Amino acid sequence: MELKSKNYIYFFTILFVILIGIQSYLLLNSFQLKKREIYSLTKEKLGKIDETDALFDNDLLNNQDATSYYIQLAQKKITLATLENSYADKVNKTEKALTHYVDSLFSPLGFQVRLQKEILQITFQNAQEKLIKKPIIVYKTSGEMTHPLELSSGTWSTEKTVKQLTKEQSTITAEQEDKQYSFLVLRRSTFEVVNINWIVFKKLAFLLFNSTLILVALLFLFYRTYQNLKQQQKKISQLHDAVDNISHELKTPIATLKVALKTIQKQPDPTILAVMERQVERLENTLQPLHESDKTDADIPITFDQVKMILADFKLAHPHIKFDINEFSTIEIPINESDFTTIIVNLMNNSIKYGATHLSVSISTNKNLFEIQVRDNGIGMALKEIPHIFEKFYRIQKNNIYDSNGLGLGLYLVNTIVGRHQGKIDVTSKINIGTTFNIIIPHE
């Protein structure tokens, strides 16, 4: 059983991990797909800004102004810092307006978008000289970008012809000539959806919740199925043990009856007939517990004398056990002889099976309640065993070995009878100290 149970756990664990992997893969793909959809929509809206640079470029440096600055930079008439400061001043002036414009596009969608355009390189083609060492921002929205994505990139080629002195400007006869300046400008636009993960999470929250719920439900169902399987296997094992015990108990009287029958066939003998009668009675007693719960004896309360005889016979059969029995001659007992006998004998037998040498039996009434208490000094039982001791065929075992012989029906029958009388059983036990059974049955 243990090996099979472990195999079930291993097999389910592997399948469960595979299922989690599949679910995670599908969720990740859905997450990436949603991100691509959001990025695509963002690019579409931002593309309109990028296609109409004049909307903001004219507020910065238009193409003609920019070319003039590039020529002055190439001629060393201004420094690179001067060009960068010019762009920075323009960026500061337009940042608020650009941010407001971008927010107006994306706020209805719940997007927080940042945008930036920059010049990556300016190449003076006449001399194949790179004029800047780091990118220069052309325009941007408020806030810094941590994971920018490219919106667009391209090169802008500009040329301008400038008249230039051929001699020193102080010379009266100075002449001018046309000189063409050509520049290649590499530009790039980037953007970032700051709250992209939160947006995607909200869109996939229902799917994520359902996936998690399915996994939890599957795990719970397996747990319940596994527990039920263990219980069924346990009951089957108990049933097999019960059948084995019954078979063992039946062997001796059946063998005795066979011998007795052969003997009596040869010569009638009253002694043999008595033996056969006792063996038949033994067979009946062995099989009786299997049908005890189906008995329908008349509901005639047991008498004091009957109780006295039941306890006296039990004491006589167990002379090595010390008994303490309270005085109950005036007690009215609301159950019949058969039920009382089954309860009291099974409880006392159970105590003796589990090592009791001292039994304390108390029978009393309290208002409208009839009470039976059986206390012993036996080996006791673990708390985890108590909820199961009233199950049919259940017997306590340690290390796969049962602590005592029997069919596991005694306490089951006791519980059945008490339940039929709308009563209840309370059990307390401590290992190596003993066990106490308290039974309360209501009566008018």
Automatic annotation (TrEMBL):
<keyword id="KW-1133">Transmembrane helix</keyword>
<dbReference type="InterPro" id="IPR036097">
    <property type="entry name" value="HisK_dim/P_sf"/>
</dbReference>
<dbReference type="InterPro" id="IPR005467">
    <property type="entry name" value="His_kinase_dom"/>
</dbReference>
<keyword id="KW-1003">Cell membrane</keyword>
<keyword id="KW-0418">Kinase</keyword>
<dbReference type="InterPro" id="IPR003594">
    <property type="entry name" value="HATPase_dom"/>
</dbReference>
<keyword id="KW-0812">Transmembrane</keyword>
<dbReference type="Pfam" id="PF02518">
    <property type="entry name" value="HATPase_c"/>
</dbReference>
<keyword id="KW-0808">Transferase</keyword>
<dbReference type="Pfam" id="PF00512">
    <property type="entry name" value="HisKA"/>
</dbReference>
<dbReference type="GO" id="GO:0016301">
    <property type="term" value="F:kinase activity"/>
</dbReference>
<feature type="transmembrane region" description="Helical">
    <location>
        <begin position="7"/>
        <end position="28"/>
    </location>
</feature>
<keyword id="KW-0472">Membrane</keyword>
<protein>
    <recommendedName>
        <fullName>histidine kinase</fullName>
        <ecNumber>2.7.13.3</ecNumber>
    </recommendedName>
</protein>
<dbReference type="InterPro" id="IPR004358">
    <property type="entry name" value="Sig_transdc_His_kin-like_C"/>
</dbReference>
<feature type="transmembrane region" description="Helical">
    <location>
        <begin position="204"/>
        <end position="223"/>
    </location>
</feature>
<dbReference type="InterPro" id="IPR003661">
    <property type="entry name" value="HisK_dim/P_dom"/>
</dbReference>
<dbReference type="InterPro" id="IPR036890">
    <property type="entry name" value="HATPase_C_sf"/>
</dbReference>
<feature type="domain" description="Histidine kinase">
    <location>
        <begin position="245"/>
        <end position="444"/>
    </location>
</feature>
<keyword id="KW-0597">Phosphoprotein</keyword>
<dbReference type="InterPro" id="IPR050351">
    <property type="entry name" value="BphY/WalK/GraS-like"/>
</dbReference>
